[in-house]
Amino acid sequence: MKNKMKLGVIGCGYWGPNLIRNFAKLEIAELVAIADTDSRKRSSMKRLYPKLELYSSGEDLIRQKNIDAVAIVTPVSTHYPLAKSALKNGKHVLIDKPMTETVEQAEALIRLARKRRLVLMVDHTFVYSGAVRKIRSLIQSGSLGDIYYYDSVRVNLGLFQHDVDVLWDLAPHDFSVMSSLLKKKVKEISAIGSRPVRRGEWKPESVVYIAIRFADHTLAHFHLNWLSPVKVRRTLIGGSRKMVVYDHLDPDNQVKIFNKGIHVKTDKDRSKVLIQYRVGDMFAPKVDQTEALELVCRDFIKCIRNRKKPDADGEAGLQVVRLLKAAERSLRKNGEFVLL
Amino acid sequence: MKNKMKLGVIGCGYWGPNLIRNFAKLEIAELVAIADTDSRKRSSMKRLYPKLELYSSGEDLIRQKNIDAVAIVTPVSTHYPLAKSALKNGKHVLIDKPMTETVEQAEALIRLARKRRLVLMVDHTFVYSGAVRKIRSLIQSGSLGDIYYYDSVRVNLGLFQHDVDVLWDLAPHDFSVMSSLLKKKVKEISAIGSRPVRRGEWKPESVVYIAIRFADHTLAHFHLNWLSPVKVRRTLIGGSRKMVVYDHLDPDNQVKIFNKGIHVKTDKDRSKVLIQYRVGDMFAPKVDQTEALELVCRDFIKCIRNRKKPDADGEAGLQVVRLLKAAERSLRKNGEFVLL
Amino acid sequence: MKNKMKLGVIGCGYWGPNLIRNFAKLEIAELVAIADTDSRKRSSMKRLYPKLELYSSGEDLIRQKNIDAVAIVTPVSTHYPLAKSALKNGKHVLIDKPMTETVEQAEALIRLARKRRLVLMVDHTFVYSGAVRKIRSLIQSGSLGDIYYYDSVRVNLGLFQHDVDVLWDLAPHDFSVMSSLLKKKVKEISAIGSRPVRRGEWKPESVVYIAIRFADHTLAHFHLNWLSPVKVRRTLIGGSRKMVVYDHLDPDNQVKIFNKGIHVKTDKDRSKVLIQYRVGDMFAPKVDQTEALELVCRDFIKCIRNRKKPDADGEAGLQVVRLLKAAERSLRKNGEFVLL
Amino acid sequence: MKNKMKLGVIGCGYWGPNLIRNFAKLEIAELVAIADTDSRKRSSMKRLYPKLELYSSGEDLIRQKNIDAVAIVTPVSTHYPLAKSALKNGKHVLIDKPMTETVEQAEALIRLARKRRLVLMVDHTFVYSGAVRKIRSLIQSGSLGDIYYYDSVRVNLGLFQHDVDVLWDLAPHDFSVMSSLLKKKVKEISAIGSRPVRRGEWKPESVVYIAIRFADHTLAHFHLNWLSPVKVRRTLIGGSRKMVVYDHLDPDNQVKIFNKGIHVKTDKDRSKVLIQYRVGDMFAPKVDQTEALELVCRDFIKCIRNRKKPDADGEAGLQVVRLLKAAERSLRKNGEFVLL
After folding, report:
1. Contact between B207 and A149 (Cβ < 8 Å)
2. Which residues of chain A does D252 touch, with a Cβ-Cβ cutoff of 8 Å?
3. B76 vs B24, B73, D326, CA distance in Å?
4. At a CB cut-off of 8 Å and minimum separation 6, what does A76 contact?
5. Which chain B residue has its CA at the smallest distance from A220's CA?
6. Does the beta-carbon distance from B259 to D286 stay under 8 Å?
7. Which of A138, B322, D8, D151 has a CB 3.0–4.6 Å from the CB of D236, allowing a cystine?
8. How far apart (Å, rounded) are the C-alpha atoms in residues B84 and B64?
């Protein structure tokens, strides 16, 4: 098929091969080139996908005329220059999360993409997962009633990474999911951290607690931890009508919906306020198990073809960067709330 | 036995009957009297323990000459006057938690007890549980190494109470346990809350997040929530050598000890710092299942007899009140850290 | 109230006090007497319920004119003589499970009760639990479709009992529940056992597997075990439309209903039969948490008043005894199926 | 490296690609050829491993002079002719489980391999898993004491397969694991089944219960089920000193060791036998997570090089076939025990 869209992937480290695998199996586009500075990584990919053209730098790949779109899966510090260059060369761009190191960079990319009429998308993978899509539809339909709070725990005995702390490593997942679920305006953010593990000069935050206050006073809270002996991926969303527990690690029941709400009533005899709890049924809907990253790839291609905005567009990426930067400022102020 | 110590219990509401039941079965002391303003509660106790003398007010009970010690299990606002009166009448005193409404009241009781050489104890029940005693001995023996962080979650769809918010309802449990485990000096405390449920004027905090920073920078964190669809009672304690998960609701494995530590090393080739994780065995020791409240009661009697200080003495109760009051101040300052 | 029915309980061992406690709190009848050969057990009950008349033998209690009905909670070997005597003295009778030691004894009691127009009920407690009632209504409504199989596991590190083996100790629970759920005719039963633990002459079956084949070929299976390091109480019921998991130890989700059925279709190309699985939602209905024994007590009183047959009547008790005796015969024949 | 051993794999269906992947990554041998009758499956493998020679029949591959050893991963009905041919052509052979359709075929292959001095191995994958190796060392060291019973549950809502029933599909896993753990002589076997799902003539056993009695009277039991709404993979092994729970689906705690044993003592006062339970600590050792199939492949190569017998040799494969055939006979006799 002559008109099949042609794709390139820049970066074959931890996450790149997953994108490559998903692009490779799409029928609606053709993965033609990859780039990585590490020749062993390039040849390891070549062995799996013999037809790929290999480049030792992202810039070389970007200069290829036959490539329509690129995915950038490199360390975050290189996201901005590579994406800018790709957009200037007329390529549609998918960037790994977090989108950029600064708010200004994200804004510049959004402007550039808009000017060139190119698709700019961020790989907020979880936003495309069956579980998050199910919860989004529940919230949007009003099933939960008013949202009372949002509480997220993402802890594990993770690999320490050299170039990021636990905030930049884990929070992009939760911030992107929360932003896609709660269509509320963030007012302020607070972050408290701890750095018990050190190595010479290097002493990253490895335990961080974040609170987000929305304009309507709703509270969201995040516990991020690289030093937990057990792995937990659990989000509670309390609503006035129903409540949701999203446990990413429970394959059979990723989403549980509780018919437990509260109902305020006055007990006149005792002249005091009581709140009665409705404790009801629990329902664990079937959740689509399609790999979320496949849906990310498909949405990228589809948006290029139809000149549409993806769900995880540049604005969504920018909002995550905004939250990260504000959380960073609050960390330096020992948890003081920072306006967004 | 002539010399058996004689006890009275003031308050037969939710918790009082548990203290009465435990005192009643002790051989080393004799429960002789109870007091409650509600005649139905008094007679309900009388039916179970026919020999009890009944009083309609705590003051009446306190005035009885034959009573050596009293337990005060009434609403917190009455703790101070009752305890003061009891101490002035020469009775040893066990007070339900939290000890008092203010720091000054707690300090006054401690002074009074010291002056009269009477035992003053606070019913920090969990401090006496098999699980907490096991963890305490682990920490004291140095098995965990340096403490990296302390993270506690106590959430459920609880009964809203008229006279307290979620802070005063749940935090005393966690503050007393933490204080008994970590012999570190608290530097400052921060609390952020949310009050999504209201009834007229009444609008209590029902979701609260608390951070405590110790003088050595260690971080402790608490999630208290009356609006969770699932009940969680879980504390993570990360150490440089071992880590502990204390799950109060897992009867078979309340305490799990993980041989997972981290080990920092330099990867010279890649000129960057790596941290390797030791991921090892897990051990769930047998935990003594004796009812903690029975041990509280026994310790109270024993300390009276031997003129010793109980583990949960007035100072322990005072520290919990100090933390509660400081958390309250921080709540009003939108989470600003408050020095202790 | 003059006409309040008067009750007596014979046997204050392990289970008796639970019946006494439940009868004592009923308003519709009055517990007036208890009997036990052990004076310590009698006085222990007297302390809790001071108005009770005490008897040192069940026969003495049975002879009291003012008593309308008795509960027999003694070792199984005494069930028949006591129940016979009680019925002959015009008392309605509630017997602990298993009803009797032999089929003939159970049949004799049924005949006697019918002749005297007295209520004869067996304390099949679990049959009255919220979970079993919920499952029964699901099956009776046809929600599960055709029943494919019934699989029950009841294992724990239990107390060895002197006078029974694991079959007589645990199977009455499962046989009574199964009989109340599946209205199918039992054709034959097989039991295989193991007796690894011995003490001199005494060497009871402590691990037993039982298979029941119904007339329509449906298979039920039971795993009973006193030597398991973990406690399991789980029943799977497979249906053509839905499947049920009943986990007695999961308080939040005792009953789970799975929308997973199978759907047979022919794959013509490959000339072979395929079976497609529908894998759908899971639903955990709210289950009534009223203590099942309270409902047993209430049903007993109600049936006496209204001269009705209880759900767990003599016939139900007889069926359990029939299954136990047939399983015993199969055990002696090394698992050969025995016709019922 | 000239002397690198050369391997071929026959069969690229469900399991074949896993063997191919593991052989391909070994440094100590070279995978050179694959065979499958389905050209799509051949080319799908070629795409991943471009250097492979492709054959459309196993016989063609077997005739290649340069191949030293073959793995046979085809439907069980073809195992015998292919393995016989391979052995006759001087190839070492690794066969997928179950080894053959009949006892006689397995015996013939063993004789042939012995005569030709070739390695004959069966892919009993689980026998090489970290969990099973850990349990084997526990049993062999005597830690568990005397083995009291062995209870295995392997149930799920599985794919119905056209050519086998649940016995031949699932039991080979459990029979091979049990045989590798318990070095006891099997005396007899009983199997009871149910076939609730049918499609015309085809009506396979989809629920099967199997009991194995060893010569020393120890009992092993297996529950195999294609119709369970929940997936369970759990084996209990009761010993006189310790007990083991092996849960294949609990990644954190695949093997749990309970310090719970029983201790028989006589209670003289009450003239009856009591058994006291020691209820002690639980220990979940770290389990090697190396893919078991990689160890199978390595052991195959190593045994060829060193002319040694693999753990899962022809005799082990034969024993599994013997148990399957005997279970089949018992199924036809409605569960009557069949001598082995």
Report:
1. yes
2. 230
3. 24, 8, 73
4. A96, A98, A100, A101, A163, A164, A168
5. B194
6. yes
7. D151
8. 15
CA of B156 to nearest chain D CA: how many angstroms apart?
26
pLDDT of residue C272: 43
Give yes or no for residue D273 having a pLDDT over 50.
no
Query: What chain B residue is nearest to A264 in terms of C-alpha separation?
Result: B199
Task: Please determine, looking at this structure, whether the domain spanning D128-289+321-339 carries the CATH number 3.40.50.150.
Answer: no
Q: Calculate how close chain D gets to A48, using CA atoms only, in Å.
A: 5
Q: Where are the domains of chain A?
A: 5-118, 127-289+321-339
Subunit contact C50:B48, Cβ cutoff 8 A: no
Contact D257, D282 (CB under 8 A): yes
With an 8 Å Cβ cutoff, the interface of chain A facing chain C consists of 252-253, 259, 279-286
Contacting subunits of B (3+ beta carbon pairs below 8 A):
A, C, D
User: pLDDT, tens digit, for every residue of C261-307?
Assistant: 666 655 443 334 455 555 689 999 989 989 999 999 999 999 999 98
ipTM at complex level: 0.93
Closest Cα in chain C, distance from residue A280 (Å): 5
Question: Cα dihedral angle (B73, B76, B81, B86), rounded to 10 degrees?
Answer: 20
Tell me the per-residue pLDDT of C25-71, one tens digit each, with 9 for 90 and over: 888 899 999 999 999 999 889 877 888 999 999 999 999 999 999 99
pLDDT tens digit sequence for A15-73: 999 999 999 888 889 999 999 999 999 988 987 788 899 999 999 999 999 999 999 99
Closest-CA distance of chain C to residue A282, Å: 5
**Residue of A48, A230, A252 lying closest to D48 (CB–CB):** A48
For residue C278, the chain A residues in CB contact (below 8 A) are none
pLDDT confidence band for D202 (50 / 70 / 90): confident
Residue of D nearest to C282 (CA): D229
- Indicate the fold that domain B127-244+321-339 takes in CATH: Dihydrodipicolinate Reductase; domain 2 (3.30.360)
> Nearest by CB to A275, which of B197, B272, B335?
B197
**The pair of three-digit structure tokens given for residue D56, joined into one six-digit string:** 């459309």
Calculate the alpha carbon distances from B137 to B43, D211, D272 in Å: 43, 47, 40
Non-local CB neighbours of C22 within 8 Å, separated by 6+ positions: C291, C293, C294, C296, C297
pLDDT tier at A252 (50, 70, 90 boundaries)? confident
The domain A127-289+321-339 is placed in CATH, from the list 3.30.360.10, 3.20.20.70, 3.90.550.10, 3.40.250.10, at 3.30.360.10
Instruction: Compute the nearest-CA separation of B148 from chain A (Å).
Output: 6
| Residue D8 scores a pLDDT above 80 | yes
pLDDT in tens, B233-250: 999 999 999 999 999 998
Contacting residues of C for B48, CB less than 8 Å apart: 48
